[in-house]
Amino acid sequence: MGNNEEKLNRGFGLSASLALVVGTIIGSGIFFKQGSVLASAGSTTSAMMAWIAGGILTLASGISVAEIGSQMDQTGGIYIYIEKIYGKIWGFLAGWMQVIFYGPAMMSSIAAYFGILFVDLFGLSKTFAIPAAIIGLSFVGIINSVPNRFSAGFQILTTTIKMLPIIALIIFGLFFGQHDAIGQTVSGITGGQGGFGVAILATLFAYDGWVTLANISGEIKNPQKVLPKAIVFGILIVIVAYVGVSFGVYQSLSANNIVKFGQNTTLYMATNAFGVIGGRLLSVAVLISLLGTLNGKVVSFPRVLFAMANDGLFPFAQQFSKINMRSRTPNKAIWFMISLGILMIIFTNPDRLTDIAIFTTFLFYILVFIGVFKLRKQDPLGERRGFSMPLYPWLPLLAIGGSLYVEISEILHDLSGVAISIVIVAIGYPVYKFLSRRTDNN
Question: Which stretch of DSSP H or E encloses residue 218?
Fold first, then answer.
């Protein structure tokens, strides 16, 4: 590995790391996915169980990754974990998937939601949605091109702001909701065919983001201790928030109306609860929330590209492994991935990409969860572990089982998307062979 990682600034303490986990997970999903989760689940009871199941799966997954992360403090996250456990080719394919597809797809999807909500809030033509999305993503890129204390501070600020409407929606639903839709079945619409597995898959977009902290281990103060705490407590906070908001929505609207309003469900609820001004304030808070989530993605995913380039395992590695000496951030890696995200915003359907991206990344998550057992076997006394999970081996087994359940569900309902994701990962193999030969020759 190159020595450029030593030039990174360890500017993320526990507060900023916790804010990164919570702020990256809580973005658009909890506000925009209520309708789609309910439509797939078929009833509010099943939908609530899907949110809880998605949270438990995420928590088991996060705790498993936290144990591995406490043993490996290099920048790169899953790319590093899989490389060290299974070898360079598998590590490269995991990194390739995140850099070429998963990371940009998530950036583009969140930015696209930002653009849609922005033009709706200000009554602009829908033709401005894409430019607004690009401007929002570029703004976050600029914040990440300066010393990381600014991106860390921005994450804490946006996370604090985004919790306010969540708390308000929970309180309103608990004390003032009048519909009590718990137990209602969706009727009179086309929906419910996706099933419980697809409903869980929809929640996983809302829960996505817990792994981003692992990608920036080289910029976390005392990562062996801070990373596990931030991941575990961050996911717990999000589960409480998501289940609380879902309960509030089900208390305030009927099941059919939730599906009918779709992405506008929480906006409609907030407008009913707090008037037009309340609805607008929620929209502003969601816009800020989306910028915070984007910030987490832009902080995180370019570090995977940086780590791969630092190992000489990416085209133009010498450029992407460079650190800006003034900001001590990998700016070329950041702007390359932002550019990919912008292209996806312009030429693709980002919402479709996220479903495919969730499938591909869970393939590699499963390898990481299996890696917990391999590392335990190599180090039975835990001398290298900064964090040892409770309930071993049940939590990694739950993470593996839940992930397989979701993957099988996706295969049954979206075989074309699965095929696309496999092709994208497979393209990385000849790229790796070419790059590794060139590295060996040098």
Answer: none
